[in-house]
Amino acid sequence: RREDGIPEGMEEIMTKIDLVFNDIDGCFGNFKKPKAYPEKQSLTGHEDLLANIKAFVEAHPEVKFSSCTGRSLYLCDNIIEATGMNEISAVEMGQEIYNPLTKECYGLLRRLYGERREKSGLTLLRHWTEVADGLREFMQTSAQYYDYPLKLFFRGSNIRRMQDNRAMLTYEFDDVITGEAVFQFMEPHLYESVRNGIKEGIIKVVPSKKAVDVRTFINKGHAIDHILEKLKRTGEACLGIGDSYHSDIDMLNCCEHVACPANSDDKLKDYVSGRKGHIARQTFGEGVLEIYGTLI
Which single residue of 3, 124, 138, 275 has CA 20 to 30 Å from 164? Predict the structure, then answer.
C-alpha cells in the first residue's frame, strides 16, 4: 500500500470506474429485516451512514451507481433511495429489474420473452416464462395456505415466508433447521408445472444457512448482463461490491473490478484477493465508503 492509501497496482482504476454494482445486505449496512409483512424496512441507526453514501454518489455524477440484491423491491426501495442509487438495478436475485429514476419494475424473463424478435429460441423462452408465471401464481394464490402448517411442523425455528417477494419463493428461519428440510415439506404442494420446472432445471432450489429460495435459473449475473445490454456497454470499467460468495459471485464475475467490505465471508475475500481486488479494512457501509474513496 502506497503512502497515499492507494493499494499497489490500483493506480489506473482511479480513472477507469464509471459504473458500480452494490449488494445491499452486508454492504450498505447490517440491517435487521422487519418481523412481518407489510412492515417496511426500518433505517433507524443507519441514517447518517446512508446519507454519507448518498453524498458521495451525488458528488460523483460521472459515475453511475446500481444495486443488485436478493431483497424484494418492497424491502429495499427506501435503501436505494436513501443511498442515491441512480442506475438500473436488480432485486430478488435478478428475477426483477428496477429503475430508481422512472420507478419501472419488471420481471426479467418475461421482458426477455417480450423483446425477442427472431424465432430462434422463442418457443423455449416462452416455456421458461410460463413456468416462471406458474411459480408467481403459486406464491400469490396458494403459498399462504401452508404458512401455518410450516410453523407447526418446524416449531421453534421462527420460519416465515417472505410475503413481500413477487417472483422468488423464499422461506427464512433460524439455523436449527435446514433449507433442504423446508423444501422437502413444500415440494408436494407446489404446482405440477413448478415441480416439472425443477426437474428441467428452469426452477432452482437454493438453500443457505438460514433460508431457502425457489426461483428461476435467473441470477444476479443474468441481471447484470441485461442491465449492461440496456446501457449498451460491457463490464469493463465496472466495479462490483459484495459480501457473500454464495449470493454475489455471479454479479462479481460480470465486473472488471471487484471489492468487498471487511465483514465479507472468507471465500469471497479469497476470490477478491485472487482477482487483485480491494478488501476494505472497515465493515459494512463504512467499508463501502472506503472502497468508493479508494477506487473511484
Answer: 124
C-alpha cell at 295: 477506487
Alpha carbon distance 220, 67 (integer Å): 10
Backbone angles phi, psi at 106, to 5 degrees: -145, 155
- Give pLDDT tens digits for 16-38: 899 999 999 999 999 999 999 99
CA torsion sign, 266 to 267 to 271 to 274? Answer: positive
Is pLDDT above 80 for 118?
no
Per-residue pLDDT tens over the stretch 281-290: 999 999 999 9
Tell me which long-range contacts 262-270 makes (C-beta under 8 A, separation of at least 24).
262/287, 263/26, 263/30, 263/287, 264/26, 268/242, 268/243, 268/244
Interstrand relation of 257-260 and 64-67 (parallel, antiparallel or unpaired): unpaired
Global pTM value: 0.92
For residue 68, report the phi and psi dihedrals to the nearest 5 degrees: -140, 105
Q: 271 and 250 in contact (C-beta within 8 Å)?
A: no
Grid coordinates representing 248 are: 454475489
